[in-house]
């Protein structure tokens, strides 16, 4: 008798198939319920520790009997499980899995090596013990499972971006052996993809109905209880996916990837540094910055991204051991991996895994990308530090994997400086992959594939995977979005597609690979090929003739608060960039002067790497948890405490034998001659002011009291306080007038008489704003905060003269910002100096407030040179 004709309604048919594969409904009789067959228990024992122990040490501890249902914790602790298992003999010929479900992130160890990560959130809950158990295989063995008491995205209390909950408990909910039915899994993948095609192409599409008919027919002929019916259902699916599209199909290059946000971990080993004291005064680079408090955001909100630093190392081990297993089982699977720092951690702590990565790199399956030490912030590091990211990264990749990276890889950062194309080109990189601009709040970026032109005209080819994610799963929906969302249709016929759980690591799964392989060439869908970044960019370059060019910065319309959040991190970063710059300049000069000088190359590399690590896109930005911020501050302290002695040693070698009162020399590490007022140390600990001139990248003896240069033709600074309490500072170049509360009422260029402060307005005006963003508290500052402006009014009579004139004049005042917060400020004008400096110290005890200082200027110009 013929089967009943297919008369059903689209929706009921669709939902019928859904129920057939559902993990929730009808699992007693549907296909999903047959995914696993027979099972048996394992014998468990466990050991709990607050430390992150190496395997060798962990397995020597005392393990106590444990069972499924046990709870452990708290947050950031580790529970090691010993799993003793005996595979039943009757399972010979079958695929056998260890099924493991627990809260937290787990790593399976076998024979002393990490072999796979297991996380519920990352859809990895079974470890393949044997793809096909042979009679000769050992059937009893012991594994270890290292369970970290944190999730893929940390341990946020209530929400992902909240501060961690230190008291969370974790539970083991499943641990057993089971027979896995690969044929059922294969049919489930087919049916889910067919549902995806039916839904994604919609009821207007002929192909959508073909997919739905095929799926419905498969349900009709497949009896979950009768495996002998599976092949006929499989044949129907194979026929559908084997119907190819035409030559013009779009090609998607799917690349396995796993974005792991880098924390920072305190090193236990330290370089040996030497320390030498010398009375040398170093003139720092930042001396020429003015109006340094132009924009300030200071607050004490909890930060949350998102796990302590040593956990990052374990995340790498969990994610990459999984990737290695997948590469073994899928010879066409290519996994792209960035961040030399993470690879270096794995090299030192998991050498066996590192060797496997090198092996797969030789086969072309493991592809190091990015070229940088970490995926750094794209705006806050100095140009020199950006170069060092590539220098340290590329050297590491060359040393460990035999070649440098040809693509810059920065999927997740908060905007991109216009100097990057030039720096990339200079570091041998012409290709750049990112996607973060898809997060723009207001304006959609107009391209996915384009040339990016930097400040000097350097151009690189940029690709944003049009699916707008770096954590794809291989669904039909994502594949279709990659085509429909592509803003460069007609200009290029290739797109990238990054699949694998990300941010907290995890990476690709076998199911994702099965989906993508099934979609390699199916009518109605784009072609999908497992590719490398190199293959993608080569294809894009081939037809790049029609691509548009974007000139200048790639600005992210979101997360702008990261420029000011945790101001101490920004300060530490800039100071340390400056110290390392100066150590290198002086050490190079010292070496040029004497071949006996030992250039501190190893120490500098170590310190640069610490600094580069802190420039990770969730560290220097301040969007990290408090634990990370504390470690970052400690690193800055390490760089200061080890960098400054190097600076003194280089200066001592450079200046040996030079004349000068009590050996005092002044060094200028900037490439132009400078004349400035300096506070010179006196023996009693006091200081005396002197006007000094130092040549470009050079030094000069400090002036003696008798050799102090005459001020002429420079006019000394005059300081006058009026009876109303206002103060005027005048050095003949500029004249500054402060009202009795410290606000700037006038700033005049004396020669021209030109007034810079806008008419009727006040400069140096502190203002408070509310700071309540839409979601990302540490990251964002929203435009609507401008509507909450409240000037902080000072009290008349608080302004006083500080330094009374001559070489330097200054005035200072106190300002009460709120009952809890206050600031003090000194306004300084030096002889011969064409700008005024504001030294501000803020005692800040506010939450969700934003402090700025305004300088409304009588200047209109679309451009500024600085
Ligand atoms: Zn990230």
From TrEMBL:
- BP GO annotations: mannose metabolic process
**Where does the record place the Glycoside hydrolase family 38 central domain?**
557-636
Keyword terms of this UniProt record: Glycosidase, Hydrolase, Metal-binding
Q: Does the keyword Hydrolase apply?
A: yes
Q: Which InterPro entries match?
A: Ams1-like_N (IPR054723), Gal_mutarotase_sf_dom (IPR011013), Glyco_hydro/deAcase_b/a-brl (IPR011330), Glyco_hydro_38_C (IPR011682), Glyco_hydro_38_cen (IPR015341), Glyco_hydro_38_cen_sf (IPR037094), Glyco_hydro_38_N (IPR000602), Glyco_hydro_38_N_sf (IPR027291)
Give a Pfam family name.
Ams1-like_1st
- Known SUPFAM superfamilies for this protein? Families 57/38 glycoside transferase middle domain, Galactose mutarotase-like, Glycoside hydrolase/deacetylase
According to the UniProt entry, its GO molecular function terms are: alpha-mannosidase activity; carbohydrate binding; metal ion binding
May I ask which residue range the UniProt record assigns to the signal sequence? Answer: none
Is Secreted among the key words of this record? Answer: no
Instruction: Say which family it is in.
Output: Belongs to the glycosyl hydrolase 38 family.
- Protein name per UniProt: Glycoside hydrolase family 38 central domain-containing protein
């Amino acid at each position: 008798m013929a089967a009943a004709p297919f008369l059903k309604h689209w929706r009921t048919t669709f939902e019928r198939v859904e129920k057939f594969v559902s993990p929730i409904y009808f699992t007693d009789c549907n296909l999903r319920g047959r995914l696993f067959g027979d099972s048996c228990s394992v014998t468990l024992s466990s050991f709990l520790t607050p430390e992150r122990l190496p395997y060798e040490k962990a397995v020597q501890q005392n393990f106590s009997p444990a069972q499924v249902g046990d709870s452990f914790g708290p947050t950031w602790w580790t529970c090691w499980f010993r799993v003793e298992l005996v595979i039943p003999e009757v399972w010979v010929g079958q695929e056998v899995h260890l099924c493991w479900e627990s809260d937290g992130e787990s790593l399976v160890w076998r024979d002393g090596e990490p072999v796979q990560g297991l996380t519920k959130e990352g859809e990895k809950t079974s470890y393949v013990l044997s793809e096909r158990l042979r009679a000769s295989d050992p059937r009893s063995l012991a594994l270890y499972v290292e369970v970290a008491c944190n999730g893929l995205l940390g341990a946020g209390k209530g929400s992902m971006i909240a501060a961690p909950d230190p008291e969370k408990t974790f539970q083991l909910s499943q641990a057993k052996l089971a027979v896995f039915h690969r044929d059922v899994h294969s049919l489930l993948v087919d049916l889910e993809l067919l549902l995806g095609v039916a839904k994604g192409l919609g009821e207007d599409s002929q192909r959508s109905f073909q997919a739905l008919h095929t799926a419905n027919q498969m349900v009709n002929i497949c009896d979950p209880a009768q495996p002998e019916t599976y092949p006929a259902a499989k044949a129907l699916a194979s026929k559908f996916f084997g119907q190819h599209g035409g030559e013009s199909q779009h090609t998607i290059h799917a690349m396995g990837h796993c974005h792991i946000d880098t924390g920072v971990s305190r090193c236990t080993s330290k370089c040996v540094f030497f320390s030498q004291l010398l009375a040398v005064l170093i003139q720092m680079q930042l001396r020429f910055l003015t109006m340094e408090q132009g924009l300030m955001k200071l607050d004490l909100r909890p930060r949350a991204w998102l796990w302590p630093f040593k956990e990052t190392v374990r995340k790498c081990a969990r994610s990459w051991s999984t990737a290695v297993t997948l590469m073994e089982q899928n010879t066409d699977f290519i996994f792209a991996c960035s961040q030399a720092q993470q690879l270096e951690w794995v090299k030192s702590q998991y050498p066996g895994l590192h060797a496997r990565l090198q092996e797969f790199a030789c086969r072309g399956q493991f592809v190091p990308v990015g070229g940088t030490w970490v995926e750094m912030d794209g705006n806050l590091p100095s140009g020199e530090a950006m170069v060092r990211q590539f220098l340290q990264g590329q050297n590491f990749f060359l040393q460990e994997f035999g070649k440098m990276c040809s693509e810059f890889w920065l999927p997740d950062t908060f905007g991109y400086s216009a100097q990057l194309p030039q720096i990339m080109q200079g570091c041998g990189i012409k290709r750049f992959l990112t996607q973060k601009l898809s997060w723009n709040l207001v304006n959609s970026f107009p391209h996915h594939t384009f040339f990016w032109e930097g400040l000097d005209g350097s151009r690189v080819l940029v690709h944003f995977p049009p699916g707008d994610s770096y954590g794809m799963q291989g669904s039909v929906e994502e594949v279709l979005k990659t085509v429909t969302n592509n803003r460069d249709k007609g200009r290029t016929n290739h797109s990238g597609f990054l699949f694998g759980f990300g941010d907290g690591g995890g990476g690709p799964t076998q199911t994702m690979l099965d989906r993508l392989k099934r979609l390699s060439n199916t009518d109605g869908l784009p072609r999908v090929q497992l590719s490398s970044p190199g293959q993608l960019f080569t294809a894009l370059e081939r037809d790049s003739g029609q691509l548009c060019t974007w000139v200048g910065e790639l600005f992210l319309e979101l997360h702008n608060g990261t420029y000011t959040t945790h101001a101490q991190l920004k300060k530490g970063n800039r100071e340390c960039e400056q110290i390392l710059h100066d150590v290198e300049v002086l050490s190079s000069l010292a070496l040029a002067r004497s071949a006996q000088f030992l250039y501190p190359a190893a120490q500098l590399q170590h310190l640069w790497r610490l600094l580069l690590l802190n420039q990770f896109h969730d560290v220097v930005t301040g969007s990290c948890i408090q634990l990370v911020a504390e470690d970052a501050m400690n690193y800055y302290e390490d760089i200061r405490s080890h960098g400054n002695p190097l600076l003194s040693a280089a200066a001592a070698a450079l200046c040996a034998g030079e004349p000068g009162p009590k050996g005092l020399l002044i060094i200028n590490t900037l490439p132009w001659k400078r004349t400035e007022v300096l506070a010179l140390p006196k023996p009693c600990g006091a200081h005396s002011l002197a006007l000094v001139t130092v040549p470009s990248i050079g030094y000069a003896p400090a002036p003696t009291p008798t050799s102090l240069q005459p001020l002429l033709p420079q006019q000394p600074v005059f300081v006058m306080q009026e009876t109303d309490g206002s103060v005027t500072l005048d050095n003949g170049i500029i004249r500054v007038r402060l009202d009795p509360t410290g606000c700037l009422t006038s700033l005049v260029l004396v020669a021209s008489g030109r007034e810079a402060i806008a008419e009727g307005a006040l400069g140096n005006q502190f203002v408070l704003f509310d700071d309540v963003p839409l979601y990302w508290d540490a990251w964002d500052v929203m435009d609507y905060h401008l509507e909450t402006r409240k000037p902080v009014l000072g009290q008349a009579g608080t302004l006083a003269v500080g330094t009374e004139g001559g070489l330097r004049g200054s005035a200072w005042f106190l300002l009460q910002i709120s009952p809890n917060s206050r600031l003090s400020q000194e306004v300084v004008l030096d002889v011969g100096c064409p700008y005024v400096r504001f030294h501000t110290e803020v005692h800040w005890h506010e939450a969700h407030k934003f402090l700025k200082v305004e300088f409304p200027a009588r200047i209109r110009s679309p451009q500024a040179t600085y």
